[in-house]
Amino acid sequence: MNELLETYHFLTNRLATDPLLSLAQTVVWLDPLWQEADEDEDASPDEDGTLALALRITRRVFPEVYTQAVEKLRRGATYADLDRLICAAFAQQGIPLESLEWIGFGVPVPAYGVMLDDPDSYTMHPDIISVLECFGVSWPPDRYHVEVPEAAYTAGRLIAADLEHHTDERCRQVAWLLQWLFACSGNSSVDYDYDTLCEFQPLSWDQDDLAFAVDIITEADQIMANVERGLQFLLSCPDMLAALKNNVKRLYRAIQKNGDPKKELRLRLKWPVVRESELSAR
Q1: Among 120, 206, 258, 278, which residue's beta carbon has the most beta carbons within 10 A?
Q2: Tens of pLDDT along 201-218?
Q3: Model's pTM, two decimal places?
Q4: How far is CA 18 from CA 6, 22, 58, in A?
Q5: Torsion, CA 37, CA 39, CA 40, CA 42, rounded to 10
Q6: C-beta of residue 278 within 8 angstroms of C-beta of residue 239
Q7: Alpha-carbon gap, residue 152 to 249, rounded angstroms
Q8: What gap in Å lies between CA 149 and CA 213, rounded to an integer?
């Protein structure tokens, strides 16, 4: 046996018999990225670079998902397999990651907001047309631009604030609907559309930002569930829709008379008492 082979066998035996070296070997086998965990998270455009970035992030924020991914890698999983695995696991944690290629842009949050002057908003949400007609929103034939009265946002927010404390839960859900439409819920995912959200610095993958993102997303999903229920209630109740239209007219007159938009308006709004039997089926 030549000297090179003797050296190889010597090192192999030492590795197998030395507890510390065996432990190090086990750590490397179980956690192949342990040396790369603190590297800068600059994703390269290729799949290998994106996957490496995704694994580093996953290792830090969701270790159990990282363990599953490494196990899949050892079994010969493809990039597409790991993409599906990691994105599905993130979704279970409340993070809507659609594809690994987006992981380098920070923690993704949904954008539920609507732009009332954008015709596409009404194409995506046709049910809101009946509601916004109460605010005098016009829909021109060319549909390149939707005219929204200047006072609509003020009136919408005042009505939302009034309904927020209503004794009828369904009216409080209508308040959430108006807060969504007029971007005053206080939740950025609910108030802003995708283009607007992109103007903000994205949340990083550190634990504090991640926890904050989960809180935003959880709250936004709860709000949007109330928005949907409020919309269905409003559209199934002609009396409530008529009351909304009348209150908007009263507020528009008060706003015009008031002159100063910063001056507080004091106007008692009127709402009907709605029984379940009075709701129309939709």
Answers
A1: 258
A2: 999 999 999 999 999 999
A3: 0.79
A4: 18, 6, 32
A5: -80
A6: yes
A7: 10
A8: 34
